[in-house]
Amino acid sequence: MILRFCLFLMLTLFSLQAVSGEEQAERVSTHSFKVNDFVLSNQYKKNMPQSFPKEIISIFALADRKGSDQLEDWITPFYKRYGERVDICGVANMKGLPKMLRPMLRGIFKKSIEYPVMMDWTGATCEAFKYTAGVADIFIVDRNGLVVHRIRGEANEQKLKDCYAVIDRLIKEKDAEAAAEENAQSQGKDPQAPESTSDAPMQES
């Protein structure tokens, strides 16, 4: 009886979180912002610190209970296309759930999801991302922590193609930088040294 009540309460709270975001499901943010370092634990109680700069590009997939239904159609294609070349980070918005339900929720995640998912019990991390409730919210983040692309809602072919274009560009830029550093090191040069002594200001793109 108590278990049924807890499950009912959990689903009710998640549903209330989801309502406010439904109307914004298809909007795409073009405003970049910096992701600050943070640490959350996953369903196995293991801390998963996120700090920048990173060696690879990150994809942060945020969702509450309702939005989680959309995640698989995002994450599976990303894994198939990029494998370990990107860091795919799932974050579950658990704000509003009583502490007594946390062990049960962790157990549900362990049984239903193989990959680690960060549990945002307070909702602070999701709020920092300005997460939209009720949908999957996908953030593509470069190695320095800058959000360069954001898309929400259900995945489709065009949305995935847009994400691929951004991720492919970032990977290509990273590979080019690595090749330049390797070439400079092989020639005994400092890869961080400027190539020009000009005092002209850098132009913004």
UniProtKB/TrEMBL annotation:
This is Thiol-disulfide oxidoreductase ResA. It comes from the Bacteria. Residues 177-205 are annotated as: Disordered. InterPro entries: Thioredoxin-like_sf. Keywords: Signal. It comes from Pontiella desulfatans. Residues 1-18 form the signal peptide. Residues 185-205 have a biased composition (Polar residues). Gene3D superfamilies: Glutaredoxin.
